[in-house]
Amino acid sequence: MNRRWNLLIVGLLICLLASSTALAKVKITYWTGWGGDELEDLKVVIEEFNQANPDIEVETTTIFGAYEKLLTAIAGGRGPDVVSAIWGSQLAALAHHGALQPLDKYIAASSVVSPDDFFPAIWKSYNYKGHIWALGATTNTNFEAYNKDFFREAGLDAERPPKTIIELEEVTRKLTKWDANGELTRLGFLPGGLWKMGLVFGGNWMNEDTGEITADDPGNIAALQWLGDFWKEYGIENLQNFTAGFGNYWSPNNPFMVGKLAMQSYGEWLEQFQIRYNPDLDYGVFPTPAPEGGRENVTTFGGSVFAIPVGTEHADAAWQFIEWITGPVGQKKLAKVFANMPPRVAVAKDPEVLEAVPILKFGLNLLEGPNAFGDLPIPVWEQYQAEMGRAEEAVTRGGAEAAETLKQVKATIEKEYKKLQ
């Protein structure tokens, strides 16, 4: 009888222990913007966190293609505990409107996270009004890629890409091909992206000391004028007809991968594109050429960031996950999985990471330089970028005048920015 009671008591104790362990485990919801194969790779990495932290379980959900769901959920008090479906360009606006929790107290107490661990320009991009609102596990740089076989075919040195704007123009002409009917069959290069090109031409989009919007900076005007002149040289209608036949950028029909463009702007994902879409492609990379008096070796960076929305009851556990996945271990794993640049200096320079993703070596040089630029820390930054896009289209496709167009951008953004100050 005693033995039966002993067994019963032991059984009850085991049940109670298991129950208390289950109760102690905190489940946190994590929303990501990654989907497809990347989502599955991400889940493998997250499972390593779950195994190493038995008191926390991260439940991962993708909102790929439905990013507006995040704002609706936060506003309704049904947001996730952690989210990375946020672009750096959105961070200041979300912080300004009270959708996120600042991470300062966690960072101050952390032995894993320090400003000195990150590239200075990247750390700055997490800051809005003196607070850190998110951390990144990945980032990216951008540069130009060129087809070496096309260079050889045109009699150009395949190991010497253009170094100046003038050389870029000359090389573009030599690489461009037309058929007997005067229609483009291959374009040497298709420049674009007014934000970056303005920086390359020596412009600035904001005076961060005074908060003044400087869309009509002379460098920005020169860049937009140059883009407009490019379209005029090759013919607006010709370029519109030619680019209408471009396949999806993120697919095997990418125009650079199929040979419709001899040069194209890229980031670290180029290496994965080449492996997946055109293994025989012989390519090189080079920084965006600058005009005389402009900025050399310019790169802009961005990407998704990890943040804690307001309203969560599990902020401490959420931070524990963010601390790990944006820490040295998490960043190293994601760098190799996604072929993205790590925001931490030591991880970006890790020989194991550079061996796994060789193209990071080139972006690393740009990111360490003085001309690496992140998103502007203003809550109207996404609208500002949208206005830049409209200005670029008005000048390149519509023949509008660059200076007047950017003057209008300045007025529009100043008006919207003042509403929020």
Distinctive features:
alpha/beta, D-Maltodextrin-Binding Protein, domain 2, three-stranded antiparallel sheet, 421 residues, four-stranded mixed sheet
Structure, briefly:
The protein is α/β, with parallel strands linked by helices and 421 residues long.
Structural account:
- The chain has helices spanning 2-24, 36-52, 68-75, 88-96, 104-109, 120-125, 148-153, 165-175, 194-200, 218-234, 236-244, 270-277, 315-325, 328-338, 345-348, 351-356, 360-368, 381-396, 402-419, and strands spanning 26-32, 56-62, 82-87, 127-128, 131-132, 142-147, 177-178, 184-186, 206-207, 212-213, 263-267, 283-286, 299-300, 304-307, 372-373.
- It has 421 residues and is of the alpha/beta class.
- It folds into two domains: 27-140 and 301-373, D-Maltodextrin-Binding Protein, domain 2; 142-299 and 380-419, D-Maltodextrin-Binding Protein, domain 2, CATH 3.40.190.10.
- The strands form six sheets. It has a four-stranded mixed β-sheet with strand order 2-1-3-14. Strands 11-6-12 form a three-stranded antiparallel β-sheet. Strands 4-5 form a two-stranded antiparallel ribbon.
- Helix 9 (194-200) crosses helix 10, helix 10 packs across helix 18 and helix 18 (381-396) packs antiparallel against helix 19.
- The longest helix has 23 residues, at 2-24.
- The chain starts with a helix and ends with a helix.
